[in-house]
Specification:
InterPro entries: F-box-assoc_interact_dom (IPR017451), F-box-like_dom_sf (IPR036047), F-box_dom (IPR001810), Gal_Oxase/kelch_b-propeller (IPR011043), SCF_F-box_component (IPR050796)
CATH superfamily: Kelch-type beta propeller
Helix content: 10-25%
Organism: Daucus carota subsp. sativus (Carrot)
CATH class: Mainly Beta
Structural class: alpha+beta
Number of strands: 26
Pfam families: F-box-like
Number of helices: 10
Shape: globular
Strand order of the largest sheet: 4-5-6-7-26
Number of domains: 1
CATH topology: Neuraminidase
Protein name: F-box domain-containing protein
Length: 462
């Protein structure tokens, strides 16, 4: 009988321990004990690493809270590099980061797109923000992002810039995957003589260094150009060294970029669309060209379109296609009943153009702009004149489809770049929302080698 008295029944129930199920019971149907479940503790380190290499960045950031050993592993440079390598080689994990004007003029957004998933809005930009004077020397991300634009993406790190209030003062490096950023102050290169700067992002593989390329040009007054092109120069910012360095081209840089940012990035090198400058000619600008800037040296290389692309009856639009420089050539609408678009790819070794695909014919006579390509080969094409609709075209299969979720987002597509989510953090990056905090209150940094387990250490070959 249960004990009587003060709280007898209740105390009796409280002292009674529940019967726990036994994991060693024999299954009556098979007469065999159940197989043990595999956990992170029972998986071999080699297999666990292979799983983590293929895990999304967002999940890995959460996994840092598992233990000090996991925190050390996920932050380890060799793990970060291997995870990036696996992500880059996985074509199905192809992302595009887009700077887009929202429909109806209701601001801008920075959006992450994939072929097979709904778009993800990374950041909403307040375009109605008033110009703000007297910025502090150190600024926070929220303040910087009010009017920013995407200007490149390399190894998961995105270059963002301003074209109005902060122009000539700051650019920034931002990794949206790990929620870190770094403001980069620009050097003063001549005050009133500088008309504008164009920025691009590159990757110096030999030094494992992310570089910012800055093309600085003088006043664009046409009278001065007719008299002779004055000057332009290049500066390179090294993320490893944290400083700018001028590039000596041994003479004038005869190139005028048309936009404030590079147009695309191929194999770590930024490409700018601009005008070829002829200083000794009565007409300063000759024709449109591509300019490639070496991310290691900053040296400039002119990439010419083939002669037959320069006809007035054709419209040439360069872009990046599967790690190569490509152009889409279209006849001027109205000249043909069913216009075609030809896709040419540049051979790096021979510097020759090869026709890869003929796209079309299209039933409507409009310009079509190649906005971006995915690693899987699909190309985002936008109608330019009327509807500005976006289509996803697979040139290999000659198949046109709509981009998943694009109707719900309704962007007016601006600049965009291929993007790979990564754990890469450059020197000086800070966690967004924790900038300018008192360093005395920061916890002591964890020594990765002290807490990295012996199993992970041996597998990583540390």
């Amino acid at each position: 009988m249960p004990p009587t008295g003060r709280g007898g029944r209740r105390n009796h129930l409280r002292r009674t321990k529940p019967i726990l199920p036994s994991h060693n019971l024999v299954d009556p149907t098979t007469s065999e004990p159940p197989k043990p479940h595999l956990t992170a503790r029972t998986l071999p380190p080699e297999l666990l690493l292979q799983i983590l290499y293929r895990t999304e960045v967002k999940a890995l950031v959460r996994f840092k809270c598992v233990s000090r050993s996991w925190y050390a592993l996920i932050n380890h440079p060799m793990f970060v590099k291997k995870h990036l390598s696996v992500s880059t080689s996985n074509k199905s994990n192809s992302h595009v980061i887009v700077n887009a004007n929202n429909a109806g003029g209701c601001g801008k957004s920075i959006v992450l797109l994939r072929v097979d998933k709904e778009p993800v809005r990374l950041l909403d930009i307040d375009t109605s923000a008033k110009d703000r004077d007297g910025y502090p020397r150190k600024i926070n991300f929220v303040d910087f992002s009010k009017k920013m634009h995407v200007a490149g993406s390399v190894n998961g790190v995105v270059l963002v810039m301003h074209i109005d209030e902060m122009m000539g003062r700051f650019v920034a490096l931002w990794n949206p995957g790990i929620n870190q950023w770094k403001a980069v102050k620009l050097d003063d290169l001549g005050g009133d003589d500088i008309e504008r700067s164009a920025f691009g992002l590159g990757y110096d593989e030999g030094n494992d260094d992310i570089k910012i390329v800055r093309v600085v040009t003088r006043s664009s007054c046409m009278n001065e150009f007719i008299a002779g092109f004055k000057w332009a120069r290049v500066e390179i910012y090294s993320a490893n060294r944290g400083c700018w360095k001028g590039v000596d081209h041994e003479g004038e840089l005869l190139f005028w970029p048309r936009q404030y940012h590079c147009n695309f990035i191929v194999k770590g090198a930024p490409y700018f669309v601009g005008m070829d400058v002829m200083p000794d000619s009565a007409v300063a600008f000759q024709h449109e060209i591509l300019a490639r800037f070496d991310p290691c040296t900053g040296f400039y290389k002119k990439v010419e379109y083939p002669e037959h692309f320069r006809e007035m009856s054709t419209w040439v639009q360069p872009f990046e296609y599967q790690d190569s420089v490509a152009v889409m050539v279209q006849s001027t609408p109205g000249l043909l009943d069913e216009p075609m678009i030809d896709l040419y790819v540049l051979d790096d070794d021979t510097a020759s153009w090869t026709k890869m695909y003929a796209i079309g014919p299209f039933p409507y006579k409009e310009f079509h702009y190649p906005r971006q390509s995915f690693k899987t080969g699909e190309i985002v094409i936008e109608e330019q004149l009327h509807t500005r609709d976006l289509y996803l075209y697979d040139p290999e299969a000659s198949y046109v489809s709509s981009l998943i979720g694009i109707d719900s987002l309704k962007p007016l597509w601006m600049q965009s770049y291929s993007h790979t989510e990564s754990l890469v953090s450059v020197k000086g990056m800070e966690l967004i929302g924790r900038e300018n905090k008192n360093k005395k209150n920061k916890p002591k940094k964890i020594n990765r080698m002290e807490v990295l387990s012996k199993e992970f250490e041996s597998v990583l070959h540390v």
